[in-house]
Amino acid sequence: MGVSRSRTVAAPHASLAPRGRGARRSARRAFTLIETAMAVVIIGVGVVAMVDAQQAFMKSNAWSSQAATATFLANEIREYTRHLPRHDPVTGLEVDGSTLLGWGPEEGEVTHSDYDDVDDFDGVLFGAGGDFTGPINAAGAIIPRLDADGNPVVIEDEVQPMSGWSQQVTVEKVNPFDLAEVLDDNAMDAPSGDFEGRGPGDFPLRVTVRVLYQGPQDDEAAEVLTMRWIVPAN
To answer: What are the tens digits of pLDDT across the range 146-197?
Structure first.
């Protein structure tokens, strides 16, 4: 009897199957032109957002620094005038017809160190383009410009004032019963009944300090802060 022998016949092209799956996997890993363009757009949007956020942070940080400086400068004027009388203790205020005498700097008061009462500061601008070269501190001294090491900048043996900043002062007479109502500088109240009247120097004063800043690239100074306070009548 003959012995039957079985043999296994390999499937045709079986050896090509793995290479076909590998080729399909390689095709799936590749990027199409549309996918590449979308990735570029997404990355670009992210970069722009980061740049905008960085710029917004820098602007916010710069504004915070400016606000702190402006608050400091306004408070320096307040401290400087805090212990001064409202009007000159010698001449006081007097109305001659319709003219008010004694408001503002008196004769011979030519520098801010001569100012000895609050109404002397009405309309004064401390800073570039104003009545004095730079903003002042609570001691009445011009605030110097500082270099990178924190030292005053000196040019030709002269200390340079703080640049870009100014303090604009306004002094107004206000109604003692409504501090928001500004009165004329020569306002008076006539006697009536038991009321003895109120002279031109017997009203409270409202002091306003506007702190301005003009950067190197700015066309004009911009207001950073306004501070107001009331100097009550005696």
So the answer is: 888 888 888 888 888 898 999 999 999 999 999 999 999 888 888 888 888 8
Q: Which residue has the tokens 């008010």?
A: 100
Residue entry with tokens 């990027």: 31
Could you tell me where the beta strands, DSSP code E, fall in the chain? 94-96, 99-101, 125-127, 154-155, 158-159, 165-175, 178-183, 205-213, 222-231
- CA 119, CA 114: separation in Å to the nearest integer? 12
| CA 111/CA 187 separation, integer angstroms | 28
Is the pLDDT assigned to residue 20 strictly greater than 80?
no
Q: How many degrees, rounded to 5, is the angle at CA 69 between CA 170 and CA 227?
A: 30
Distance between CA atoms of residues 228 and 120, nearest Å? 17
Tokens representing 10? 């390999």
Single-letter residue type at 80: Y
The sign of the torsion formed by the CA atoms of 18, 24, 28, 31 equals positive
